[in-house]
Every structure is written in structure tokens, then in C-alpha cells.
């Protein structure tokens, strides 16, 4: 990969990729693998970008689509989509931000379904319902209702944990 | 007062350690772990292996005197390779930059198409392999005459009442047809069973993702 391309076209949007990859992984090792894979796929797909959307929206689409369908070998050597909900044994190699509340929020987000994770991440990134619907490829009218449900679920999971 | 998730999100990412990009080295030379790339690799390896095997078998078949088997094998496997090469080209057309719904739908359509095509092929492939083996050995030279005719001659010595159709014992035809029938019946199932062992979880997950997205569309 050209380092110029990475510096000029990916790095300015690394925040989006990092936030998303963190939501679909439970360890630093997986996170780094996901981040690298997203960057690789952005580079490979760059010729398909037709400027019908903003570069950041397109980067978000690639990142999300990669995260939704990434295969990785788990310890038992069987291939899985590793974005499955977090389980007790997987929390052992959990990694953390310095902000404890953010860690708790991420843990809660990881307990959601893959699509709900995508929706809440886009919502927290202040994307409009229309933009979220465009990225996911669905009806914008249903996004608002789904966001409300997800927020209620997150509040329930986080209940009493954050002050 | 309880903080909103929006505030936790905003404030959490203001801290300096939250958004540090990992170092990436030799990214392009690294093996992709994405499912589509894995499928591409698997397809390429399979196709190369089939081509190599069909060539090798063709040569061996002439050496051991069963060229009919070798030729039928070669033609059948060549058709298999051509069809799957086209499927591989379709896989290259899947665009990651479209909406998740469209991307998952396109990918799922490709999977369903390749399963349906290869399932159909398997229904014919195993019987053709069996028939080619039978024909190959039937016409194999056995001291100046085809092995099949020599075998029938020996059967007729032991069982002179054996009923023949076009010079082949009926019992032999019945057994061969039964085997062909079983191979047609189970060929597709064997393929799907084999595929499910390796990618069953992936297919299930894909289905779940699509169902979830569909629920948002209605």
C-alpha cells in the first residue's frame, strides 16, 4: 500500500475506523487485525469510489461491511465471524480505554446484535437517520424507532454502572 | 446525575489515548482475513488443483490403458473449472463500498448461486466419474480383447443362462444403474454437507444479518 494514500486518505478518517473496529472486537489483537483489514480493503476498493457520497461515508460503509463479514480463526481453530456477542471467556483478554465509562459503554455495545451495533455507532457519530439508512441500506423511518430501542437496551445494561 | 450515552461517547473520545491508530506494517503483503478473499483463495486453489489433477490423470490413464476414463475425466473436470472460473469472476465484482444491505444481499446471492450450481454439478459429476471408470476398465485391453468382453465370456462359462442386453449381463446393468441412481441422489447432498462443515456458521451468521436488516426495511 502506498504510504501516501494511507496518510492522506485513510489516516484522517482513522477515528471512524477505530471506533467501529473496537465495537466488533474484544481484544487488542483482533482490533489490530480488523483495523489492518479495513485499511487494506479501502485501498483495494478505492477505484470503485464514484464520489456519489462523501469519502467519509464511503469509508464508513467499507469499514462496516468488512467488520460484518470478517473471518478469523478462534483458539479452537474453527472459522467464525468474531463479531458474535461477547461471552464470559472472551472478556478475559479484554482491552481498555483510560476512560472507564467509555469502556463500560463499549462493553454494552458489544452485547448488541451486529446491525444494532452499526446503528448506534452511526447515531453516536451524529449521522442523521437518512445517512444511517443510506449506509445500512434500509428505510429511514424505522431507524428512529430502532435507535430508541437500542438506547433503552444500553441504559438497561449500564443501569447503575455509570454515574 | 446519570450521564447520557451521547456524553459518555463524546467525553470518552476527548482523551488522548482513545483514538490512536495501530501501526501498520507491510499491509499490502499481508494475507487478507476477509471472507470474500478467503473464498477467492479457496476457489483459486481448488481450480488449480483440479486442472493439475485432470492433466496428470489424463497422462496416467493412457499409460495404464484406460484412456476413455482419462478423457471423460479431463472433459468433465474442464467444464467444472470453466463454470467455477465464471463464478470466481462474479465474486470479484462484489463492491464493499455499497450499503450493508446491498453488499450482504449480493454476497448471499453469490453464495446461493455457487451452491446451487455446484450442487447440480455434483449430481452429474459423481455418476460421470463412475461411468468413466466402468467404461475405462470395460474397454481396457486384456490380451487382445476388451476386459469387459473377456469378463462376460468367463461369466457365461460359469452361468450359461445369464441374460445379456447388448452383450452385457442384465444383473451388471441393474447394479450399475442402482449405483448411478444413488450417486445422483446423494451427489448434491454430499457437496452441501461438505460445504456446511466448513462454512455452516458463516452462512447462518449471514442469514441472521440479512434477517435483521430486512426487519428494518419493512
- Helix % of chain B is over 70%
Strand content of chain B: under 5%
How many distinct helices of chain A? 8
Average pLDDT confidence of chain B is 90
Full CATH superfamily name of the largest domain in chain A: RNA polymerase sigma factor, region 2, helix turn helix motif
Cα shape of chain A: globular
- What would you report as the Rg of chain B, rounded to the nearest angstrom? 28 Å
Helix content of chain A: 55-70%
Name of the top-level CATH class of the largest domain in chain A: Mainly Alpha
Instruction: Tell me the series of helices and strands of chain B, N- to C-terminal.
Output: HHHHEEHEEH
Number of helices of chain B: 6
Spatial strand arrangement across the major sheet of chain A: 1-2
Q: Separation of termini of chain A?
A: 44 Å
The low-confidence parts of chain A are 82-93
In this structure, how is the largest beta sheet of chain A organized? 2 strands, antiparallel
Biggest interface goes to: A-B, 65 and 50 residues
Number of domains of chain A: 2
